Every structure is written in C-alpha cells, then in structure tokens.
Amino acid sequence: MKVYLHDIPLDEARARFDQALRAANLSGRLGEEELPLDEDLLGRVLARAIWAKISSPHYHAAAMDGFAVRAGDTVGAMPNTPLVLSIGSDSVYVDTGDAIPAWADAVIPIENVEPLGGGGVVQDPRRPEAVRIRSSVTPWSHIRPMGEDIVATQLVLPAGQQLRPVDLGAIAASGSISVWVARKPRVSVIPTGNELVSMGSDLMAGDIIEYNSLVLSAQVRAWGGDVIRFPIAPDDFSAITAVVKEAAGKSDLILLNAGSSAGSEDYSARVIEELGDLLVHGVAVRPGHPVIIGMVHQDDDPSQADSSRVRYVPIIGVPGYPVSAALTGEIFVEPLIKRWLGLRPVEPIVISAHLTRKITSPPGDDDYVRVAIGRVGEKILAAPLSRGAGVITSLVRADGLAILPRGSQGLPAGSEVQVRLYRSTAEIDRTILAVGSHDIALDLLAQHLAGYDRRLASANVGSLGGLVAIKRGETHLAGSHLLDPQTGEYNLSYIHQYLPGRGLRVISLVKRQQGLLVAPGNPKGVQGLADLGREEIQFVNRQRGAGTRVLLDYHLDREGIVASRIRGYNQEEYTHLAVAAAVASGRADCGLGIAAAAQALGLDFIALYEERYDLVIPVEYYESDLLGPLLEILADPQFRHEVALLPGYDPGCMGGLIAELP
Questions:
Q1: Stated pTM of the model
Q2: Is there a single domain that holds both residue 161 and residue 174?
Q3: How far is 516 from 603, CA to CA, in rounded Å?
Q4: Rg of the Cα trace of the chain?
C-alpha cells in the first residue's frame, strides 16, 4: 500500500492551495447575477455599486403635520402679539410627506397654531378659515428638502457590501428595482464510509451516525454558499470516484468527508490523483492533520482537445472526526468562500486569557485548543475542554480557540494565551465559571440560568481541583464532595487546609447516592467493593482529587481492600457519565458513580453510600449580581422538584448555609 500522508506546515499548505487557485483563475469572485430587489437579498454581496437613480425625497416634503407658510409672513409673531394667517393665500394644511406648495418655504406644526373659524368654532382643525400663530419660523423649518437623504447620481452602496435590511431600503429609495450580486459558490459535500448510517437509523455496534455533512453544509450556508449534499458513499474506489466526478460537474468546491488518512479504506487521496492533482496530504494542525487539498479536472467538452476548456474544481478531503471536520471548515473553507464572494476574511475577536491548567501539544503541529472563557475578578480565564477530535460537544461548549503554534509543546497553568472568541465579550461577562466536581444537577442549573441571562461554563477537574482553582482566583465557584476520613464530614477540613483565611460561603446543593454502576442484569454478580478484587472484574476509576475517588479510597481502607489488586484502579475518567459510558461500552464491568449516571445509560445501580455535594463560593462572588440568579434558583421549588426527579438525589438540604468562612 502506498502511504501518502505527510504533514506540512499550515502556511505552506495555504500557499500551495492559493497558487493552484490563482493558476486556475479561481482566486477572486466567481461571477455575478442580477436579482430583483426583495428580502431574499439579505446577506448577499453586491457585485456592482449602487448609484442613485433618483433623489430621496425627490420633492420638498412636509416633515410634520401642519400648515405650509412663507417664513417671511411669520416675522413679528410673539406670544403677546400674535399674527393671523388666512387659509389659501397665506397658509395651507399639509400632512407629513405631502409636497410643499411652490410658494411656501416652512411648515408650522399643527400643535403650534390656533385654528380660527366663523364664530370662533372650528369643526376640523385641519380645515380652519384662518390660523393664529404666536411665534415666527425660520425658512425650511419642518421641511425635508429634495435630496435630504439621497441625491440622484450619488454613491449609495459600494461593491462588496454585504446587504443588511437597511441597505435594501436605501437601494429602493434610490430608485433601483434590481441589483447585481456576487454568485454564491456551489459546494458539494460528500460523506463516505461503510460504517456510516443515516440519522434515524437503528444502530448496531460499529455504526456511526453520519452528521459531518450536516455540520459542513450548515457552515457553508452560514458563510454564504449554496450546498449540494450527497448521500453516503461506500468505501469503494470506483464508487467514490464516480460521485466526485458527478459533483465536479455541479459545483465550485467539493468537500470529500473521511477517507483522508492513509488506512486500507482511505481512498480520498487516490481518487483526487485519479481525477486531477493532489496538492497537499496532511497539514500540521491538531485536531485535523489528515487534510487533503487538490484540484479535480472537469472537461467542459471532452470531444475537444483544447486544454483551455478544462475546468478546475478545488477539492478538500475533510477528516472524519467531527471536531477535525468542523475546524477544517473554519481553516480552509470559510476563507475560500469569502474570497469567492469578494469579502474580506473574517476577523474574529481576539482576547488575552490565562490557562486554568497545564496543556501539552504535539511539538510539530499548530494546536487548536477549545476553551471555556470566564471573567473572574480582573482576570479572564481559559479553561481547556476535552481534546478529543471526536468530541463535538467540546465545540458546542467552547467559547473560543486558543491556538498554540508548533514548537511550543504546550504551556503551564497560568500562561497567557490569545483566544479567538466564538462568543461576544458581553456574553463572557455574563458567564459563571464553575470548576470542580461534575454533577448532573449543575446541568439543570445551567438550563435555569439561561432564563436569567446567565451562562454556566463548567470545567470538570474534580473536587480538589476546584478548591485549588479558588485558591488561584480562577473560578466563581467550585463543586465539591470531599469526605474527611477522620471526621466523616464533607469539604470543610479540605477547605481549611487548602484555603485558610479565605472568605467563603459553603452552600449545600444536594445529597446523592453513590454506588456501583454495572451492566444491565449485573452479569458479573457484583454486590459491593469486596467484589472489586475478583480477577475477572474490570473496574474504572475516577481521577485523583475527585470526591468519588476519595470516597472509594476511604471505604477500601475501612474494608481492608488493597487498591493494587483491583484491575482498572488506575484507569481514570473525569465525570460520572464517562464512568457510565465505560461500563455501558463493555470497557469495564463496574465503576463507582451516581445513580443518575447509571439511569442515563441504562445501567443497573447498586447503592452503597449517601454523600453531600456542596458549592464552595468566594464571598465576593456570593454577594455579586453575577451569582444572584444562581442563589435565587436554589430556592425555586420548581428547580428543586426537577432535581428530586433525578434518581438517587435528595434536594432537601439545597441552599442551606453549611459554613460562613472565615
């Protein structure tokens, strides 16, 4: 098997692609089309400037309801010496927008005149016999002169303008009924893979729901392109070649999803070589390094030997992992679509932030690290999220990307990084950053906080990690359930040890059951911790510093069970749901966790212990407007009812003040 994959720096990959686009005359706008002026033009890009065909207004117009007059006739009018103007020769009633008579040069608002009629009685103030005024007006008062807004022949909008609602109004006001806009790029998205199944299919082991094409297509539409979304193509060289040839005849760009690596069923590079030129196979970025870039040759008239008739269609082989696919779109597809529309590349908001924990990076790659962002005091903090290329929820939760250039090999906690924001700085300022132990009640809390214009961003690093984050000023609150083996009390001894003298409030969130999560029917017959020492039992643990890990070690010690004899004791996960997933997948036979996690993945649960889960909050945030809604929700009967519905949860202690420190 020929192995093509060879990573090159991102700058070099972009340069090769740009050179090929220029050679194919594809480096600028693709074309233009004339369309009628209507709301469907919103977001389209002007290919030609808009020049005013008429003035707006195209006549002198009344700016208010009132009486058109000659300004000179009002000179001398004062409160004590009013003037009377007759209707017809000296004044005439006009509504807002009416044309001003040629002899008039001002309008007196109707509320500033006294209508006069026969016998002093006026039935209709707009049709008096005369009007009395008590102040003079200056020429052109309350008149919109011709061309006040737009003057015929002036530039209304330049080419390259992306049309907004107000732009459509300006075009109409200037007399145009159609506009020339940049043609939308047509992008074909082709998913490939024998393991893929359509959304809604019955799933079997090994099946993967195909949704990358959905994400890529939505990205293309958001960036201004049109999409042709093909059905799933099997892992077959001839089949993929045929689909790519079909797509080349219909589109300006092809996104060939998956098969971009160098495995036995990765055909993308071979297909591109068969149909055109392979420019790049592998880019030094993580996630997403097995990117392919090429050009497919599309002969407009195969009967002619003239090479000038060959049409070139760029093709990007997009990696199969969902995070890699989405980031490939941002790195390569978005800039190309913007270029073809005649728009400048998007310039994201970039802020400086400090990492909440150490991260490592491949030495030869640009590393795109997904982060949650929060402002804690005067510091803006970036909490790294899951690094897995298959974890699309890490992009859902991400507030931005911190890009570590190749050669850095990572950064220690506290390092300053530049973050490209996905959210506005205003949203960041409304974000509550929670670092510490994972709990499902926090997910419910996040839903309720959305109704108070607050966001809850969580970083699951374990209870002890949450206390350390408070010590370093890197979180608004920490979730903790650390059991003191000496006293049987939760959290307080650890707080005194790690946060001595710190002003804190410890608030009870819930009591919850901890127990062993096992496969449905408990096929291994696990009953308690004593069974963990059995040779055939594979365990999955929580990470060091997690409250569940502390709880486990406490009871192992009490029961005289040696941890080193437990298979999987050093196999660590960072959340209860991750432990449940390990058991549900068969990677482990059991793990210690909460009942709600067992229910979520259809596992059996063997209840062992009840524990208290607290929120540890620095006093300055406890008393802040930012956390005010959170404390209000803890007292909400509806929220407590929803938590009580979670299996193994008791919210009876919720909101109780456990400790006021110091």
A1: 0.82
A2: yes
A3: 10
A4: 35
